[in-house]
Amino acid sequence: MKITLIYPGITESGFNNLKGNEGSWINHGLCSLSAILKKNGHKVSLIDLRILSDWDHFASLIKNSDADLFGITVMSVDLNAANQCTEIIKKANSKKPVVFGGAHPSIAPEDTLKNAYIDHVICGEGEITFLNLVNDLALGHKSERLIEGQRPELDELPFVDRELFSAREEPFVGFLKAPFVTIIAGRGCIYNCNYCQPAEKKIFGHKVRRRSVANVILELKELHLKLGFNSFMFHDDCLTEDKKWIEDFCAEYQKTSFKKQFVCQSRADLVCKNRHLIKMLKDIGLDLMIIGFESGSQRMLDFIGKGTRVEQNFEAAEICHKLGIKIWANYMLGLPGETKEEQRMTLQMIKKIRPYHCSPAYYTPHPGSRLFDYCLENDLSLIKKPEDYRRNTYEPKIKGIDYEYLKDILYESVSYGEDSSGRYGVKKVKYFLQKRGISIKLPKILSLNKVKDKISSAGRDCKGKIHMFNWFGRPKK
Ligand code: B12
Ligand code: SF4
Prior knowledge:
By secondary structure, the protein is an alpha/beta fold.
């Protein structure tokens, strides 16, 4: 069969825009589906909405398409875009099946099925079940509309088909050397943060399934031969959760004699608990650690079910500083019921942590999480449409939060990021002057680190495809 997979991830940046360096990243879910379909003799192509000019462009591709079936990956934010794709496909040829899968269908199957154009929805992991469905449909068999995905043995899956996406993956911070790749060593998360779970458990189950160390190393070696990459990032939600796996990985990785920078995500409590693991990871190339510190208020950390303590946030940061690992700090502002005092506590926390990069978000309720349900039950959400599920710092999300006040906190907090102090320092001054009715054009001042980042980014891509991170500069729509 000829299958066209669709990546509809245009909600944040729109069409014709591999916006920000993350915008260039492959979608591992689709690449994994593609690999198994191709291995079983099917032909697979991709429509990546991010590189199209508009809906007419999409419609013309569909009109000329010889695909027998379309498969669309859907995060909650992209639901409208995915539905629009389906409508265009069905208007062009109502007989071609459209299959939805991914986070939103797994979390909210009934909501997904509301779109009568969708032929099948696969919940959870798709490799085995989608392949079976495609094979059945090829034989003219009928199948259920809602199908529960069967979990694969990760080591038995072929490596993801990176050629599906035409764009080169770009590093998202300047000090990471290109070529850059993203990789996933496992699926699932055992933790229970209220702003996230049970979504992850609905997609991947209650346990973490990790690929064997040998399997991951083999993929890295293959990638080294094919792409000669210099840096990489683990997408795993919490890579350091399995002590034994990390120890084995570090030992085996050392044997490759690779000298590559890498990035992974972890939690403050785990960094504190297993500092020797963090040292081992640093020794083999860990240069940046993404940590969800989330809040400087213990009451808020407890409210979101993070399972960490504010003191652990500080201790984890100290461990990283001592080891020379840069910190990418995720934190939330504007949680339901958060007081101004608590917001200032988060600001103070960021000041003390001294991250390399500050990555704040206004708390955004996401479908599939307990906090999302809490916000609905208590009529707290300002979210009106799926697109509003994007996490950002320019759209109010929760009733009762003083977002004007939060802006002060936000700008001051980001100024403590090592990479952005200059830029946000200027933004901050502008913002405070504006508040006093003074509008001036300040020269663009960059911190030394930002200058270094910019130079290395520019060197990486002379076609100017790279846009530097712009989390905060977006104008209000
Ligand atoms: C990497 C990642 C990103 C990357 C995506 C890069 C890319 N090009 O895909 C970046 C950083 C850009 C990103 C952004 C966002 N992300 Co994100 N991201 C992830 C992360 C950590 C890994 C995704 C992944 O590769 N998983 C591994 C693959 C194998 O799993 P998978 O994609 O789910 O695919 C499997 C199944 O779902 C299914 N499947 C998937 N698609 C399809 C299609 C068909 C047809 C079928 C049959 C099956 C199927 O089969 C696949 C194989 O088993 C996940 C968390 C996680 N652990 O999955 C969050 C996650 C997907 N992201 C999430 C969110 C909220 C966002 C943002 C909205 C955050 C924001 N900044 O506002 C944005 C939205 C971006 C957009 N679309 O506009 C949520 C989604 C929740 C939801 N309700 O939709 C998740 C689940 C994290 C969480 N727990 O909150 N993200
Ligand atoms: S936020 Fe991270 S640590 Fe918490 S449950 Fe979700 S994936 Fe796990």
